[in-house]
Amino acid sequence: MSIAILRNKYDHELCTRQYRDHLDDLESIFYLFCEVVFYWDKETVPLWWNSDDLYECAASKLLMFCIEPDEFETDEVDPEYSDVSCKLLKRFFAFTQEFVVKKEEINMMGDHQAEERERLVLVDSWEDHFDRLLGIFDDALEELGLPPYHDDGSTSPSVSPTPTLAEQLETLALTSRSDSKGRL
Fold first, then answer.
1. Confidence category of residue 114, pLDDT binned at 50, 70, 90
2. Where are the domains of the chain?
3. What is the number of H-type helices and E-type strands within the chain?
4. What domain of life does the native source organism fall in (predicted)?
5. Where does the pLDDT of residue 155 fall: very low under 50, low under 70, confident under 90, or very high at 90 and above?
6. pLDDT per residue over 53-105, tens digit each?
7. By the 8 A CB rule, do 61 and 113 touch?
8. Does 134 or 150 have the greater pLDDT score?
9. Cβ of 48: how many Cβ atoms within 10 Å?
């Protein structure tokens, strides 16, 4: 769970100012990736992964992002994973750190209108965020001698626009009409 979501669960004033966005999902994916590649036992599992206290969990995650990206330790990565996985993890950490720090800076601005403007700028950059993260993974695939995930050269995820209510009703009406005539 992202730091912002954890903090929203115990900081009700902050909860009124910040909302869940795609960056929370990307941050959560980072934590899941850590769960996959790290070899943790009872003594080495990080507090942010093992704590039931939401405040403690959020604080320890935030503390993790206070280091320089090159200081992010990958010593406990399961030996089954290659150096490419360690490099990928470090790059994913640096990518995640950028927006975690930015969101915290926004939270400390003190001017709610300025905070909202900055949040919108951050959220409006969603295509860039996805392009950069997919590029990080594509670079790792290339380093492993595998083709990039996207064959067409793009890294943008294909997003199908959600049909409007009118379009959904029209589709339903056409389907019902076809069904009543014994077709389809």
1. confident
2. 3-180
3. 9, 0
4. Eukaryota
5. very low
6. 888 888 889 999 999 988 998 988 888 999 999 999 999 999 999 999 998 89
7. no
8. 134
9. 20
What letter does residue 43 receive in the DSSP assignment? T
- Here the tokens at position 88 are 């990928």
Adjacent-strand bridge partners of 38 = 77
Token pair of 71, please? 């200081």
Say which residue the tokens 């926004």 belong to. Answer: 106
Q: What SS3 class is residue 11?
A: coil
> Distance between CA 12 and CA 5 in Å, rounded?
11
Q: Which residue has the tokens 């400390």?
A: 108
The answer for residues whose C-beta is within 8 angstroms of residue 176's C-beta and 6 or more apart is none
- Tell how far CA 121 is from the center of its chain: 17
Which pLDDT score is estimated for 151? 55
Burial class (CB in 10 A: 0-12, 13-18, 19+), 136: middle
pTM: 0.75
**Where does residue 3 rank: exposed (0-12), middle (13-18), buried (19+ CB within 10 A)?**
buried
